């Protein structure tokens, strides 16, 4: 299965990416534009911010499941949660 993991560069996201690849899934790892990319092939990295529906959206063709690990855990939850609408719309498409 082709799986999108949001927050893939985070603590939980990295573990989820590892578990998914170990289980044989094709993983698309979403990392913010300036975030560190800790992954190697076969993980596909897409860069984007969930608060904005941007070019990253076009890289999600064929994704069958979304594991949503992105969160603002450093006290900036308000900034991260201001844009749930485009994020939810994208997941629903
Ligand atoms: N850690 C645990 O043990 C644990 C246990 C149970 C549940 N959880 C929950 O799991 C979630 C993630 O926790 P975590 O410990 O993995 O946190 P984390 O290490 O801070 O990872 C969160 C990730 O989300 C990304 N992110 C934040 N805002 C984003 C946005 N607008 N668009 C795209 N990506 C965004 C961050 O990117 P940047 O690196 O660029 O900021 C980061 O990579 C939280 O909701 C937490 O409550 C965690």
Automatic annotation (TrEMBL):
Return one GO MF term.
aldehyde dehydrogenase (NAD+) activity
**What positions does the domain NAD-dependent epimerase/dehydratase occupy?**
3-83
Species per Swiss-Prot/TrEMBL record: Sphingomonas rhizophila
Gene Ontology CC, one term: cytoplasm
Q: What Gene3D superfamilies has UniProt attached to this entry? A: NAD(P)-binding Rossmann-like Domain (3.40.50.720)
Q: Which stretch is the leader sequence? A: none
What residue ranges are annotated as transmembrane? none
Q: What is the recorded name of this protein?
A: NAD(P)-dependent oxidoreductase
